[in-house]
Amino acid sequence: MNSTPPQSSASLPETDSASATTDPARTALLDALNELLEAERAGARVAMETGRSITDPELAALADDIHKDEVRWCSMLMRTIKSLGATPSSATGAFHGKAMAIADLDERLKFLNRGQAWVTRKLQALIPQVDDARARADLTDMLQAHHQNISRVEDRFTAPATLEPQTEPQAEASPVPTEPGALIEFILTRFHEVHRQQLPELIQLAAKVEAVHADHAETPRGLTDLLTSMHSELLAHMEKEETILFPMLARGGSSFVTHPICVMMSEHEEHAQRLAQLMALTHQATPPGDACRTWVQLCTATRQFAEDLKAHIQLENRVLFPQFDKSLVQERPEAAR
Ligand SMILES: [Fe+2]
Ligand SMILES: [Fe+2]
Protein backbone atom coordinates (compact mmCIF):
# COMPACT_ATOMS: atom_id res chain seq x y z
CA MET A 1 0.00 0.00 0.00
CA ASN A 2 3.02 2.19 -0.38
CA SER A 3 4.80 2.44 -3.62
CA THR A 4 7.76 4.24 -2.05
CA PRO A 5 10.71 2.31 -0.65
CA PRO A 6 10.75 1.61 3.10
CA GLN A 7 11.74 4.65 5.11
CA SER A 8 14.25 2.71 7.15
CA SER A 9 16.06 -0.28 5.79
CA ALA A 10 16.44 -3.25 8.09
CA SER A 11 19.25 -2.47 10.44
CA LEU A 12 21.43 -5.30 11.57
CA PRO A 13 22.71 -5.96 15.06
CA GLU A 14 26.37 -5.33 15.72
CA THR A 15 26.92 -9.03 16.14
CA ASP A 16 25.97 -9.76 12.53
CA SER A 17 28.81 -11.10 10.49
CA ALA A 18 30.27 -9.03 7.69
CA SER A 19 28.98 -11.55 5.16
CA ALA A 20 25.42 -11.15 6.49
CA THR A 21 25.57 -7.37 6.24
CA THR A 22 26.84 -7.48 2.68
CA ASP A 23 24.65 -10.31 1.40
CA PRO A 24 22.57 -8.54 -1.29
CA ALA A 25 19.86 -11.24 -1.29
CA ARG A 26 19.36 -10.85 2.47
CA THR A 27 19.29 -7.05 2.19
CA ALA A 28 16.73 -7.24 -0.61
CA LEU A 29 14.57 -9.64 1.42
CA LEU A 30 14.68 -7.39 4.51
CA ASP A 31 13.86 -4.32 2.42
CA ALA A 32 10.88 -6.13 0.90
CA LEU A 33 9.64 -7.30 4.33
CA ASN A 34 10.02 -3.81 5.80
CA GLU A 35 8.24 -2.27 2.84
CA LEU A 36 5.35 -4.68 3.41
CA LEU A 37 5.41 -3.97 7.16
CA GLU A 38 5.12 -0.22 6.63
CA ALA A 39 2.34 -0.78 4.11
CA GLU A 40 0.42 -3.08 6.46
CA ARG A 41 0.83 -0.61 9.32
CA ALA A 42 -0.60 2.08 7.06
CA GLY A 43 -3.47 -0.22 6.04
CA ALA A 44 -4.22 -1.10 9.65
CA ARG A 45 -4.44 2.56 10.61
CA VAL A 46 -6.63 3.42 7.63
CA ALA A 47 -9.02 0.54 8.39
CA MET A 48 -9.18 1.42 12.11
CA GLU A 49 -9.68 5.15 11.58
CA THR A 50 -12.19 4.63 8.79
CA GLY A 51 -14.10 1.99 10.74
CA ARG A 52 -14.70 4.46 13.57
CA SER A 53 -16.52 6.83 11.19
CA ILE A 54 -18.69 4.23 9.46
CA THR A 55 -22.30 4.07 10.67
CA ASP A 56 -23.40 0.99 8.67
CA PRO A 57 -22.75 -1.89 11.13
CA GLU A 58 -22.02 -4.42 8.37
CA LEU A 59 -19.47 -2.19 6.70
CA ALA A 60 -17.98 -1.20 10.06
CA ALA A 61 -17.53 -4.91 10.89
CA LEU A 62 -15.78 -5.42 7.55
CA ALA A 63 -13.40 -2.50 8.25
CA ASP A 64 -12.77 -3.95 11.72
CA ASP A 65 -11.96 -7.37 10.25
CA ILE A 66 -9.52 -5.79 7.81
CA HIS A 67 -7.92 -3.84 10.65
CA LYS A 68 -7.45 -6.98 12.74
CA ASP A 69 -5.95 -8.83 9.77
CA GLU A 70 -3.55 -6.01 8.95
CA VAL A 71 -2.41 -5.84 12.58
CA ARG A 72 -1.89 -9.59 12.56
CA TRP A 73 0.33 -9.37 9.49
CA CYS A 74 2.31 -6.50 11.01
CA SER A 75 3.07 -8.75 13.94
CA MET A 76 4.06 -11.65 11.66
CA LEU A 77 6.31 -9.43 9.53
CA MET A 78 8.01 -8.00 12.63
CA ARG A 79 8.60 -11.52 13.94
CA THR A 80 10.03 -12.63 10.59
CA ILE A 81 12.36 -9.62 10.36
CA LYS A 82 13.55 -10.20 13.94
CA SER A 83 14.15 -13.87 13.14
CA LEU A 84 16.57 -12.69 10.45
CA GLY A 85 18.52 -10.77 13.09
CA ALA A 86 17.33 -7.34 11.95
CA THR A 87 15.27 -4.56 13.50
CA PRO A 88 11.81 -4.01 11.99
CA SER A 89 11.05 -0.58 10.59
CA SER A 90 8.82 1.53 12.85
CA ALA A 91 7.62 3.76 10.01
CA THR A 92 4.09 3.94 8.61
CA GLY A 93 3.73 3.82 4.84
CA ALA A 94 2.79 6.95 2.89
CA PHE A 95 -0.41 5.15 1.89
CA HIS A 96 -1.95 6.19 5.22
CA GLY A 97 -1.76 9.91 4.43
CA LYS A 98 -3.00 9.41 0.88
CA ALA A 99 -5.96 7.31 2.00
CA MET A 100 -6.98 9.57 4.87
CA ALA A 101 -7.04 12.54 2.48
CA ILE A 102 -10.04 10.88 0.77
CA ALA A 103 -13.07 12.23 2.61
CA ASP A 104 -15.71 9.90 1.14
CA LEU A 105 -15.61 6.70 3.20
CA ASP A 106 -16.75 4.39 0.39
CA GLU A 107 -14.10 5.83 -1.92
CA ARG A 108 -11.50 5.45 0.83
CA LEU A 109 -12.38 1.79 1.30
CA LYS A 110 -12.09 1.22 -2.44
CA PHE A 111 -8.68 2.90 -2.32
CA LEU A 112 -7.77 0.64 0.60
CA ASN A 113 -8.71 -2.31 -1.59
CA ARG A 114 -6.38 -1.11 -4.32
CA GLY A 115 -3.66 -0.96 -1.66
CA GLN A 116 -4.47 -4.54 -0.67
CA ALA A 117 -4.11 -5.57 -4.32
CA TRP A 118 -0.68 -3.88 -4.39
CA VAL A 119 0.29 -6.01 -1.37
CA THR A 120 -0.80 -9.22 -3.15
CA ARG A 121 1.41 -8.35 -6.13
CA LYS A 122 4.39 -7.73 -3.86
CA LEU A 123 3.76 -11.00 -2.02
CA GLN A 124 3.45 -13.00 -5.23
CA ALA A 125 6.85 -11.68 -6.31
CA LEU A 126 8.46 -12.20 -2.89
CA ILE A 127 7.25 -15.65 -1.78
CA PRO A 128 9.26 -17.69 -4.35
CA GLN A 129 12.45 -15.98 -3.13
CA VAL A 130 11.95 -16.93 0.54
CA ASP A 131 13.84 -20.05 1.59
CA ASP A 132 12.63 -20.34 5.18
CA ALA A 133 9.62 -22.68 5.28
CA ARG A 134 7.81 -20.95 8.14
CA ALA A 135 8.23 -17.48 6.67
CA ARG A 136 7.03 -18.75 3.29
CA ALA A 137 3.96 -20.34 4.89
CA ASP A 138 3.18 -17.14 6.85
CA LEU A 139 3.52 -14.97 3.74
CA THR A 140 1.31 -17.37 1.79
CA ASP A 141 -1.35 -17.13 4.53
CA MET A 142 -1.06 -13.36 4.32
CA LEU A 143 -1.56 -13.49 0.54
CA GLN A 144 -4.67 -15.67 0.85
CA ALA A 145 -6.17 -13.45 3.57
CA HIS A 146 -5.62 -10.40 1.37
CA HIS A 147 -7.38 -12.08 -1.55
CA GLN A 148 -10.35 -12.85 0.73
CA ASN A 149 -10.57 -9.30 2.06
CA ILE A 150 -10.32 -7.84 -1.43
CA SER A 151 -13.24 -10.05 -2.52
CA ARG A 152 -15.33 -9.04 0.50
CA VAL A 153 -14.88 -5.34 -0.21
CA GLU A 154 -15.53 -5.86 -3.93
CA ASP A 155 -18.71 -7.79 -3.12
CA ARG A 156 -19.85 -4.99 -0.85
CA PHE A 157 -19.49 -2.33 -3.51
CA THR A 158 -20.61 -4.27 -6.56
CA ALA A 159 -23.71 -5.94 -5.08
CA PRO A 160 -26.88 -4.56 -6.72
CA ALA A 161 -29.04 -2.59 -4.33
CA THR A 162 -32.06 -4.79 -5.15
CA LEU A 163 -30.49 -7.98 -3.84
CA GLU A 164 -32.32 -9.73 -1.04
CA PRO A 165 -30.79 -9.06 2.35
CA GLN A 166 -28.26 -11.70 3.27
CA THR A 167 -30.06 -14.43 5.16
CA GLU A 168 -27.02 -16.40 6.25
CA PRO A 169 -26.25 -15.89 9.92
CA GLN A 170 -23.40 -13.49 10.49
CA ALA A 171 -20.26 -15.08 11.76
CA GLU A 172 -20.00 -14.45 15.47
CA ALA A 173 -17.02 -12.50 16.69
CA SER A 174 -14.26 -14.92 17.58
CA PRO A 175 -14.01 -15.42 21.34
CA VAL A 176 -10.78 -14.36 23.00
CA PRO A 177 -8.64 -17.49 23.29
CA THR A 178 -7.54 -18.70 26.71
CA GLU A 179 -4.88 -21.24 25.66
CA PRO A 180 -1.57 -19.45 26.42
CA GLY A 181 0.00 -19.63 22.94
CA ALA A 182 -3.12 -18.36 21.18
CA LEU A 183 -3.81 -15.79 23.91
CA ILE A 184 -0.28 -14.37 23.63
CA GLU A 185 -0.67 -14.11 19.86
CA PHE A 186 -4.00 -12.33 20.40
CA ILE A 187 -2.47 -9.87 22.90
CA LEU A 188 0.39 -9.10 20.52
CA THR A 189 -1.85 -8.39 17.56
CA ARG A 190 -4.87 -6.82 19.24
CA PHE A 191 -3.06 -4.72 21.85
CA HIS A 192 0.73 -4.41 21.48
CA GLU A 193 0.66 -3.55 17.78
CA VAL A 194 -2.38 -1.30 18.26
CA HIS A 195 -0.71 0.68 21.10
CA ARG A 196 2.34 1.13 18.86
CA GLN A 197 0.04 2.83 16.35
CA GLN A 198 -2.15 4.74 18.81
CA LEU A 199 0.45 6.56 20.88
CA PRO A 200 2.39 8.38 18.11
CA GLU A 201 -0.97 9.49 16.71
CA LEU A 202 -2.15 10.71 20.14
CA ILE A 203 1.11 12.57 20.75
CA GLN A 204 0.77 14.34 17.40
CA LEU A 205 -2.84 15.37 18.13
CA ALA A 206 -2.00 16.53 21.67
CA ALA A 207 0.94 18.63 20.47
CA LYS A 208 -1.30 20.28 17.88
CA VAL A 209 -4.07 21.06 20.39
CA GLU A 210 -1.60 22.38 23.00
CA ALA A 211 0.09 24.62 20.40
CA VAL A 212 -3.02 25.94 18.64
CA HIS A 213 -5.13 26.43 21.79
CA ALA A 214 -2.43 27.59 24.22
CA ASP A 215 -4.73 30.36 25.51
CA HIS A 216 -7.86 28.23 25.94
CA ALA A 217 -8.86 27.69 29.58
CA GLU A 218 -9.43 23.95 29.11
CA THR A 219 -6.31 23.14 27.10
CA PRO A 220 -4.78 19.91 28.46
CA ARG A 221 -1.41 21.47 29.29
CA GLY A 222 1.32 18.87 29.67
CA LEU A 223 -0.63 16.20 27.77
CA THR A 224 2.04 15.82 25.08
CA ASP A 225 4.69 15.21 27.73
CA LEU A 226 2.48 12.75 29.60
CA LEU A 227 1.70 10.78 26.42
CA THR A 228 5.37 10.79 25.42
CA SER A 229 6.28 9.28 28.81
CA MET A 230 3.48 6.72 28.52
CA HIS A 231 4.69 5.83 25.04
CA SER A 232 8.26 5.08 26.12
CA GLU A 233 7.10 3.24 29.25
CA LEU A 234 4.69 1.07 27.29
CA LEU A 235 7.24 0.33 24.56
CA ALA A 236 9.76 -0.79 27.19
CA HIS A 237 7.10 -2.86 28.99
CA MET A 238 5.88 -4.59 25.83
CA GLU A 239 9.44 -5.25 24.72
CA LYS A 240 10.09 -7.06 28.03
CA GLU A 241 6.95 -9.15 27.59
CA GLU A 242 7.77 -9.95 23.97
CA THR A 243 11.41 -10.84 24.49
CA ILE A 244 11.47 -12.34 28.00
CA LEU A 245 8.17 -13.29 29.61
CA PHE A 246 5.95 -14.35 26.71
CA PRO A 247 8.56 -16.71 25.20
CA MET A 248 8.90 -18.34 28.65
CA LEU A 249 5.11 -18.72 28.93
CA ALA A 250 4.79 -20.00 25.36
CA ARG A 251 7.27 -22.74 26.26
CA GLY A 252 5.01 -23.81 29.13
CA GLY A 253 6.37 -21.64 31.95
CA SER A 254 8.50 -22.68 34.91
CA SER A 255 9.05 -21.76 38.54
CA PHE A 256 11.13 -18.82 37.29
CA VAL A 257 8.19 -16.99 35.70
CA THR A 258 6.70 -15.71 38.95
CA HIS A 259 9.28 -12.93 39.29
CA PRO A 260 8.87 -11.44 35.78
CA ILE A 261 5.08 -11.78 36.17
CA CYS A 262 5.28 -9.84 39.41
CA VAL A 263 7.38 -7.12 37.71
CA MET A 264 4.90 -6.87 34.81
CA MET A 265 1.93 -6.60 37.21
CA SER A 266 3.68 -3.88 39.14
CA GLU A 267 4.25 -2.00 35.86
CA HIS A 268 0.55 -2.49 35.03
CA GLU A 269 -0.27 -0.63 38.24
CA GLU A 270 1.97 2.22 37.06
CA HIS A 271 0.19 2.21 33.68
CA ALA A 272 -3.16 2.43 35.50
CA GLN A 273 -1.91 5.46 37.46
CA ARG A 274 -0.79 7.10 34.22
CA LEU A 275 -4.22 6.38 32.71
CA ALA A 276 -5.88 8.11 35.67
CA GLN A 277 -3.65 11.17 35.05
CA LEU A 278 -4.51 11.06 31.35
CA MET A 279 -8.25 10.99 32.02
CA ALA A 280 -8.02 13.80 34.60
CA LEU A 281 -5.97 16.00 32.23
CA THR A 282 -8.43 15.50 29.35
CA HIS A 283 -11.57 15.95 31.53
CA GLN A 284 -12.39 12.26 31.06
CA ALA A 285 -11.59 12.55 27.35
CA THR A 286 -14.33 15.13 26.88
CA PRO A 287 -13.78 18.04 24.48
CA PRO A 288 -15.04 21.55 25.37
CA GLY A 289 -18.16 22.85 23.62
CA ASP A 290 -16.11 24.99 21.23
CA ALA A 291 -13.57 22.27 20.41
CA CYS A 292 -12.14 22.10 16.92
CA ARG A 293 -12.07 18.88 14.90
CA THR A 294 -8.56 17.98 16.06
CA TRP A 295 -9.52 18.36 19.72
CA VAL A 296 -12.58 16.13 19.25
CA GLN A 297 -10.38 13.61 17.45
CA LEU A 298 -7.87 13.76 20.31
CA CYS A 299 -10.60 12.95 22.85
CA THR A 300 -12.04 10.10 20.77
CA ALA A 301 -8.58 8.58 20.30
CA THR A 302 -7.78 9.06 24.01
CA ARG A 303 -10.96 7.22 25.01
CA GLN A 304 -10.21 4.36 22.64
CA PHE A 305 -6.60 4.07 23.86
CA ALA A 306 -7.72 4.07 27.50
CA GLU A 307 -10.29 1.33 26.86
CA ASP A 308 -7.75 -0.74 24.94
CA LEU A 309 -5.05 -0.41 27.60
CA LYS A 310 -7.48 -1.37 30.39
CA ALA A 311 -8.67 -4.43 28.45
CA HIS A 312 -5.07 -5.37 27.65
CA ILE A 313 -4.00 -5.23 31.30
CA GLN A 314 -7.09 -7.13 32.45
CA LEU A 315 -6.42 -9.92 30.00
CA GLU A 316 -2.85 -10.36 31.17
CA ASN A 317 -3.61 -9.99 34.89
CA ARG A 318 -6.77 -12.07 34.98
CA VAL A 319 -6.46 -14.63 32.20
CA LEU A 320 -2.84 -15.13 31.15
CA PHE A 321 -0.70 -14.72 34.26
CA PRO A 322 -2.88 -16.77 36.68
CA GLN A 323 -2.34 -19.80 34.42
CA PHE A 324 1.35 -19.70 35.41
CA ASP A 325 1.19 -18.32 38.95
CA LYS A 326 -1.63 -20.00 40.84
CA SER A 327 -1.32 -17.60 43.76
CA LEU A 328 -2.80 -14.93 41.50
CA VAL A 329 -6.06 -16.86 41.18
CA GLN A 330 -6.94 -16.46 44.85
CA GLU A 331 -4.62 -13.90 46.32
CA ARG A 332 -4.57 -11.05 43.85
CA PRO A 333 -7.82 -10.98 41.86
CA GLU A 334 -8.07 -7.29 42.76
CA ALA A 335 -4.81 -6.62 40.94
CA ALA A 336 -6.65 -6.63 37.64
CA ARG A 337 -7.73 -3.17 36.62
FE1 LIG B 1 1.11 -6.79 27.13
FE1 LIG C 1 1.62 -6.08 30.19
| Average pLDDT, all residues | 85
Strand content: under 5%
Instruction: Output the radius of gyration.
Output: 21 Å
Order of helices and strands: HHHHHHHHHHH
Q: Can you list the ligands bound to this structure? A: fe (ii) ion
What is the overall number of helices?
11
Provide a short characterization of the protein structure.
69% of the residues lie in helices and 0% in strands. It has eleven helices and no strands.
Brief descriptors of the model:
binds fe (ii) ion, 11 helices, 337 residues, single chain, disordered C terminus, disordered N terminus, Ferritin, mainly alpha, 2 domains
Structure, described:
This protein has about 325 residues and is mostly helical. It folds into two domains: about 20-160, Ferritin, CATH 1.20.1260; about 180-335. It is built from eleven helices and no strands. It has helices at about 20, 25-55, 55-85, 95-100, 105-125, 135-160, 180-210, 225-250, 260-280, 295-320, 325-330. The radius of gyration is 21 Å and the shape is globular.
Lay out the secondary structure.
Blueprint: H1 18-22, H2 24-53, H3 57-83, H4 95-100, H5 105-126, H6 133-158, H7 180-212, H8 223-250, H9 258-281, H10 293-320, H11 327-331
Helix pairs in contact: 2-3, 2-5, 3-6, 3-7, 5-6, 7-8, 7-10, 8-9, 9-10
The protein binds fe (ii) ion (2 copies).
